[in-house]
Model the fold of this input.
Amino acid sequence: MQVINVKSALRDYQVHITETTDFIRDLGNIKERLYVIDSNVWEIYREQIFRGIDPSKVMVLPIHEDRKNLYTVMEVYDELMSRAAKRNMTLISIGGGIVQDITGFAASTLYRGLNWLYVPTTLLAQADSCIGSKTSLNYKNYKNLVGTFFPPNSIYLHPSFLKTLRDEDFYSGLGEVIKLHLIGGADHVKSLLARIDQVRERQPNALLDAISGSLNVKLGFLDDEFDRGKRNFLNFGHCFGHALEATSNFAIPHGQAVMTGMVFANIVAKNRRFMSKNFFAELNEKILLDNIVSRPTQDHLNMEHIYSAMKMDKKRIGDGLTLIMQGDGYKMTKITDLFHPELEKSIDELKEVIGVI
Done:
């Protein structure tokens, strides 16, 4: 078992990366517990990995993007109240990032804090969202507008869950893996590119390397736990990506929207001469364009709809739009002066670069 220690002002916690599922048995020793499990994950593994779980202590939760909201959190509250839950209750979340956000928010707010453990089952959750303390909920059509900082007590990461992941969800997670390796710099990108084919084939060792590499990059930003400074750079691709999720009504999965968002950010960086044309072309050719498998349509890239959605970015503080950009040498920067004309021009170029029909 590999253990990653994560420091937090709220509470330190550990990520246990394990090839076995013995931890499931150990979780059953927690006296007051409620498992909240993604319905798809429960259906696949109930007779295998979960056969030792007491079904009377399970809440099976149907999960999709439009349920990542306060109403679903209230369902978790209701389930806990029906069990007369007290502050010694432990929530055990098993699923992807949406389950993490819903249960983490519920755990952070009920009784001002319950114990909770997280078992991520998607590539995106294992390689990115499981660490960092954030919970995020959508509000109406606005992405991740509501949330708290509340880390789990422990995380149990079992890469074999990824074998049954849908391609759509796998490539969404791959988008975040690529983002983190790009932020990590030349050595991380070189390492990922050397095994990108094996990662896409879901070969266990390659996946484990990609996940570990991603988490180690992210760890380097978590001393800014409450997102006041350099942690903003982890939102590379997200300023535009979140808007694209909204304009596509979440037809574009999160990590894939982030991939398109990185290409968009690179266009702005290139046109502002923060990134050279050669580096722009190199990134597109080697790592970005081939891994965008969910491409936006003309309607998804409607200029006014994108503009309206980007105005709701929670990191926006001035009149202009916010954007995290990468430049030559993988240098990161944040701008707050992206205005309507530059946005329109950049979207037009984006359509050409990624081949929007």
Notes: The two ends are 47 Å apart (CA to CA). The mean pLDDT is 95.
